[in-house]
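Lecture 7, part B: from sequences to assemblies.

Below are the input chains for today's worked example.
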Amino acid sequence: MERQTINKNKRVFSAEPTKLSPSEVFTRKYTSHLVPALKKLNMDKNSPQINQLTVKHEVDMALALSAQEFAWSRFLLEKLSSSNNPTTTISSSSNGTRIPERSCKEDEDGEIEEKLRELQKLLPGGEEMNVEEMLIEIGNYIKCLELQTSALKSIVQDTT
Amino acid sequence: MMMNGGEATEAELFLNCDDMSVLERQRVQLNYHQYHHPGFEPTLPCFFPNSSKMNVGEVDSFLPSAGLDLPEIYGELHGDARISVSPGNITTEFGNSKKRKFGCVDTETKVCNEKKKMMMMMDREVAVEEEEEEKSKVTEQCTRSIMKMKNKAKKEQNSCSNDSSKVTKDSQRTDYIHVRARRGQATDSHSIAERARREKISGRMKFLQDLVPGCEKITGKAGMLDEIINYVQSLQRQVEFLSMKLATVSPRLDFNIDDIFSKEVVSAPMMNLPNTVMPPHMMVNSGYPHDMVNSGYVHFNPMQQVVTSSDPLSCFNNGQSATMWDSEVQNLYTV
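Predicted structure of the full complex, as structure tokens:
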């Protein structure tokens, strides 16, 4: 809850209150979540090195909070808040893409299903959705990831 | 307040009570009707799963938590201060608008049941149709639209609580829908549903194809899925990398939110680059801390099969317009 109050105080409103595209809305939300959180991290920890995992945790948390209209953000939020130790969202980063075995043509469907399953693993909460939902959510997730990446880049750029 | 014989008198007592609020009165009316019109119950199975336990105070809590997936309707109901559903006996005090809403709700549940009946009839219809198909297979004309209507109706039966307006429309059309399958394709309801599902999925895939850069040439499902998986993984890796960088950089932070916003709003659409791998020396020019560049990107690039926006700053500098993935962001340009 503290995070929310901090964000409230520091929320920025645009000078021209025209309609914002969803991307803009997301980006603003994301930054307004993340930046104060990072500042707080800075202030709280007097240790010289900020834990990388903590930052990742904050990054993911900001993502989840900024995209609350999507199902996957709920799962992400649950995952983040349930685990006290910050976890990474990338579960399969070390695995890479598995190469499925292909003995005959009929396996093509199986291959596709396997890929769908893998995609499900990438999406937070993907395994609990059925395929159609998952494909929709993946689209949103990709978009939000892209926006998150650009937001992070501009934050990093701003501070270097 | 238990639902038994003495109930009715109590209800009447309530009704006669002047200082009772209108809301309470209506609740009581509802209980009354619930008891006295048992035929009423089956049409509202979802709202009142256990009428015998209903108290006046519990009506409100029942409605939202009855487990019914009718978010739109609940949105309306909640806005109206938890007015209970009683289609037969809506007092005029609440005005016409609310009457209409109740009408909707009632039709909704009625339609749900109708749809179930419809589905059973349709299955029988399909069986009949199959026989006819076998008789005159060669000369039969294929109409896809009718099939789609059935699919739509079927899907809506499965998810009948999701969209009330669609459901009511369908029920108004016909009681049962004739199905003609496409020539040379199976007609049983399972494969039709399966086909509809597949079409939906391929529609989704097409949308994703627009979203993921560099996928225009790929036609197969498997290939597309591969691309999508790679793209998501690369995005996640990027986020991880950037947060790592942020962690090292952040002690020297001097956050200025306005600056960040102004940069982002401008640069957000420029994010998506054509898939080129940026050589390390370019990053040096862009002002990244050198050690980060070398350690970060050198092992970064070989891992990625699809590289997107690996050098953000040069993309900002060049002002490359993105291979766009979102029309909304394009609007950003025009604003």
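Note for the exam: The CA atoms of residues 269 and 328 of chain B lie 10 Å apart. Keep this in mind when comparing with the next example.
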